[in-house]
């Protein structure tokens, strides 16, 4: 597929990482099922779609505090008001539809790419900031790397994302590789952004003509509506928490899944959230308080060491005795190669491959802490075999007490060939593979698609289920 078919270039990877990923998607098991050309085409589609944003914005809503219909109505009113307040932006009607199979999800189509004319004044932002802009965010001051020499508040500027991470902060005329993400208006002078003694906070550039149009959710219904990738919401439902249970979220930050689990339990029971970083744990506590979820107990602790041998250990906090939990979520640290949009990955192969041993250490702890008859859900936001299907094969071989279980809802694809798993086992896995439902023509906005005034939620949801981040879910039962 020629590079020019896409709006953005394919994700930039180090050659060794590119070759490693190619071997993942063109392995012997895959080639026994499909042709070399078909496997190669899938891999090239993956590289292209990773640099583009998903076609829909997924919003998880707090149905333990209000009904889906009420939140849908209030969200629509808030976003309409947001448009009225932003006199610079175009008047674009916002479509909000419920997901037909997931009862706490609303879907908002992303309009784009749009015909935005680039301006002469350029602002360069970091890659992470650029990705956020493509998903509806304004540019916050810490993300700004370079501006025109005499930029003042009110100046119209074009915003570009630094592709290779080579732009130094404070640059006045960056000439490196960059991609256009839209136009905005400066909310600060250059001198305030770069010359202040204190770290600068707040919006630096307010986006008024983004290449991809999606509402900004900054301050919108903070206790009722949360931006969360669709597969991340699916994880909570697959775990299947029930009121009164004791559940462990082993790698909880930033806490979205923790709060979702507690909400699904109606706040009845206990959700223990662990993370190694104290600041992130405090954020989880704040979110839980704002959502009136008193059943969440967050602790700053290394989950690998979360099991103790002393049955008399105080179980209020970690470490815990074996078989302390009815359900365990291991949303494991991973290489993150399924995140979208991502223009570039600067990691080397050693860094990419460093996660499998860590995940296995966490898995050992998870199995020990899970009660017999309990459920363990393992998930990642990456696309490698080593961190996904190979981990499942290893777990089934290492822990005879574990068996794979059906997932509900199962709206993604099945597991990928290459780890020696049987067809029956692969069907029990859930891999969200955006390359299977993605086309460069749709990314250019050339196809007829449900992103403009969809007649019903069905085609919209079908696309939402396919055009996601790359994600993996496995569900186990401990006998």
From TrEMBL:
GO terms for biological process: RNA methylation. The keyword Nucleotide-binding does not apply. The lineage of its organism: Eukaryota, Metazoa, Chordata, Craniata, Vertebrata. This is NOP2/Sun RNA methyltransferase 6. One of its GO terms (molecular function) is RNA methyltransferase activity. Keywords: Methyltransferase, RNA-binding, S-adenosyl-L-methionine, Transferase. SUPFAM superfamilies: PUA domain-like, S-adenosyl-L-methionine-dependent methyltransferases. Residues 441-464 are annotated as: Disordered. InterPro entries: MeTrfase_RsmB-F_NOP2_cat, MeTrfase_RsmB-F_NOP2_dom, PUA-like_sf, PUA_sf, RCMT, RsmB/NOL1/NOP2-like_CS, SAM-dependent_MTases_sf. Residues 150-479 form the SAM-dependent MTase RsmB/NOP-type domain. S-adenosyl-L-methionine binds at residues 251-257, 275, 310, 331. It comes from Hucho hucho.
């Amino acid at each position: 597929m020629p590079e020019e078919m896409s709006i953005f270039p394919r994700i930039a990877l180090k050659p060794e990482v590119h070759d490693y990923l190619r071997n993942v998607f063109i392995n012997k098991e895959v080639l026994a099922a499909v042709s070399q050309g078909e496997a190669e085409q899938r891999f090239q589609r993956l590289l292209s779609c990773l640099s583009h944003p998903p076609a829909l914005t997924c919003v998880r809503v707090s149905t333990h505090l209000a009904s889906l219909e009420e939140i849908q109505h209030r969200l629509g009113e808030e976003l309409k008001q947001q448009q009225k307040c932003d006199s610079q932006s175009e008047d674009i009607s916002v479509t909000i539809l419920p997901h037909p199979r997931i009862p706490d999800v609303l879907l908002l189509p992303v309009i784009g790419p749009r015909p935005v004319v680039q301006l002469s004044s350029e602002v360069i932002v970091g890659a992470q900031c650029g990705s956020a802009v493509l998903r509806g965010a304004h540019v916050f001051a810490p993300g700004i790397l370079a501006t025109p020499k005499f930029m003042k508040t009110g100046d119209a500027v074009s915003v570009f994302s630094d592709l290779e991470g080579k732009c130094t902060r404070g640059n006045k005329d960056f000439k490196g590789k960059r991609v256009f993400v839209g136009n905005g208006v400066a909310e600060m002078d250059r001198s305030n952004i770069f010359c202040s003694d204190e770290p600068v906070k707040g919006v630096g550039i307010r986006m008024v003509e983004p290449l991809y149009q999606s509402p900004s959710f900054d301050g919108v219904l903070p206790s009722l509506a949360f931006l969360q990738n669709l597969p991340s919401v699916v994880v909570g439902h697959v775990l299947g928490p029930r009121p009164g249970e004791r559940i462990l979220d082993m790698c909880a930050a930033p806490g979205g899944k923790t709060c979702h689990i507690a909400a699904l339990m109606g706040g009845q029971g206990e959700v223990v959230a662990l993370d190694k970083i104290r600041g992130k744990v405090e954020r989880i506590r704040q979110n839980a308080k704002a959502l009136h979820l008193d059943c969440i107990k967050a602790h700053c602790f290394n989950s690998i060491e979360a099991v103790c041998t002393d049955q008399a250990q105080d179980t209020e906090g970690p470490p815990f005795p074996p078989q302390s939990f009815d359900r365990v979520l291991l949303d494991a640290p991973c290489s993150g190669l399924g995140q979208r949009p991502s223009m570039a990955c600067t990691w080397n192969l050693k860094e990419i491959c460093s996660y499998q041993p860590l995940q296995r250490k966490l898995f050992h702890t998870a199995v020990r802490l899970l009660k017999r008859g309990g459920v363990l859900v393992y998930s990642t936001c990456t696309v490698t075999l080593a961190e996904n299907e190979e981990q499942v094969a290893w777990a089934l071989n290492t822990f005879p007490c574990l068996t794979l279980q059906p997932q509900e809802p199962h709206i993604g694809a099945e597991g990928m060939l290459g780890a020696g798993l049987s067809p029956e086992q692969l069907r029990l896995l859930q891999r969200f593979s955006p390359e299977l439902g993605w086309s460069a023509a749709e990314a250019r906005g050339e196809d007829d698609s449900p992103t403009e005034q969809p007649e019903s939620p069905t085609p919209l949801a079908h696309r939402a289920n396919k055009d996601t981040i790359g994600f993996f879910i496995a569900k186990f039962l401990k006998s």
